[in-house]
């Protein structure tokens, strides 16, 4: 219904044509978050139909906006690397970042996200949400879509809806790389110690570990696989249990560098030499791996790039754009240092 009487179209006319409130039209016009991509496009189409022109000129594209980044915990180097990438991406794109933590001291979760909390984020003008190593419910995912919040998950703990956008690394390939390296050194009793068994990355690394063993003709031994948590204390406990086996492993593939720190501590406590008596491989390549004794062989995953990609993709979703990929996996590579060597002859 284009104008024919020469009068200027108003926001009220756009709202009526789009079937939304005037406040929603204002959000779209000023590039503010809190509007779904479908509604945003409907409002823009209504602007074209009624011939609406902003008095100060077109105001799209929208400003980058503010992104909320939610960590399960910040008590590990992994999270700090990812956060560094998010902040770098925000600086490049002119966005702002607000962080929050579900488990501030690494203990019990103090505040589940929940739809009500997500509504608060939308009311505060957040453009989107990045959730790192945490769980999401179907209700929370639906709330983000309803509120128009761009949502990206990094290394989720639980399997997610295929429509949800995720960013991670090639965990399966990393598991293969770590295990093949130990096999090439002559190890056949290789333990796997990782975080929660419900963690998607932990399971993907396990599958890579099993694939490498089976390809080498080594039958995977369930006794050599342990799951607990991505932290040094858990790494120490899992290693103690592995070393107590009647036939202990000669090498341990740790599901994270934090776990590997615990593996090294357990080996020292038993008077074992690394790598003479026990070889250790980590996963992440966080700061500090060069300063362990000996320096840690580890699988590098590009954590900063993962954070940068998550930030950029969240802003794309907030603008109603289709992301380049719904499941981004960045390449891993093995970094061989001093913590791995051939097994000691028995």
From TrEMBL:
Q: Which PROSITE patterns match?
A: HTH_LACI_2
| Protein keywords | DNA-binding, Transcription, Transcription regulation
Q: Does the keyword RNA-binding apply?
A: no
Which InterPro entries does the entry link to?
HTH_LacI, LacI/GalR-like_sensor, Lambda_DNA-bd_dom_sf, Peripla_BP_I
Could you say which residues form the signal peptide? none
Report the residue ranges that make up the HTH lacI-type domain in this protein.
9-54
Under SUPFAM superfamilies, the record lists: lambda repressor-like DNA-binding domains (SSF47413), Periplasmic binding protein-like I (SSF53822)
PANTHER family per the UniProt record, alphabetical: LACI-RELATED TRANSCRIPTIONAL REPRESSOR, LACTOSE OPERON REPRESSOR
* Name used for this protein in its record: LacI family DNA-binding transcriptional regulator
**Organism annotation:** Streptomyces millisiae
């Amino acid at each position: 219904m284009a104008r024919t009487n020469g009068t200027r179209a108003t926001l009220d006319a756009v709202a009526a044509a789009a079937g939304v409130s005037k406040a929603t039209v204002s959000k779209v016009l000023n590039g503010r978050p809190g509007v779904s991509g479908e509604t945003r496009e409907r409002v823009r189409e209504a602007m074209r139909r009624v011939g609406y022109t902003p008095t100060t000129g077109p105001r799209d594209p929208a400003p980058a906006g503010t992104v909320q980044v939610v960590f399960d915990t910040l008590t590990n180097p992994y999270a700090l690397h990812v956060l560094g990438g998010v902040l770098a991406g925000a600086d490049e794109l002119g966005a702002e970042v607000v962080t929050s933590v579900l488990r501030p001291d690494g203990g019990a979760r103090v505040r589940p996200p929940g739809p009500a909390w997500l509504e608060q984020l939308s009311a505060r003008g957040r453009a989107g949400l990045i959730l790192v190593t945490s769980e999401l419910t179907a209700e929370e995912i639906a709330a983000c879509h309803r509120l128009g919040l761009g949502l990206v998950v990094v290394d989720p703990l639980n399997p997610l809806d295929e429509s949800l956008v995720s960013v991670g690394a090639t965990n399966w390939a990393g598991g293969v790389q770590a295990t093949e390296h130990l096999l090439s050194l002559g190890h056949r009793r290789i333990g796997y110690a990782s975080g929660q068994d419900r963690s998607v990355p932990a399971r993907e690394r396990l599958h890579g570990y099993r694939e490498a063993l089976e390809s080498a003709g080594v039958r995977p031994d369930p006794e050599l696989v342990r799951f607990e948590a991505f932290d040094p204390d858990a790494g120490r406990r899992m290693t103690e249990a592995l070393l107590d086996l009647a036939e202990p492993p000669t090498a341990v593939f740790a599901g994270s560098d934090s776990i590997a720190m615990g593996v090294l501590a357990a080996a020292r406590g038993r008077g074992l030499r690394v790598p003479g008596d026990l070889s250790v491989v980590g996963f992440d390549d966080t700061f500090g791996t060069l300063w362990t004794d000996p320096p840690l062989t580890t699988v590098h995953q590009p954590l900063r790039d993962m954070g940068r990609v998550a930030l950029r993709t969240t802003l794309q979703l907030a603008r109603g754009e289709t992301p380049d990929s719904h499941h981004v996996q960045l390449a891993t590579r093995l970094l061989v240092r001093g913590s791995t060597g051939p097994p000691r002859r028995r």
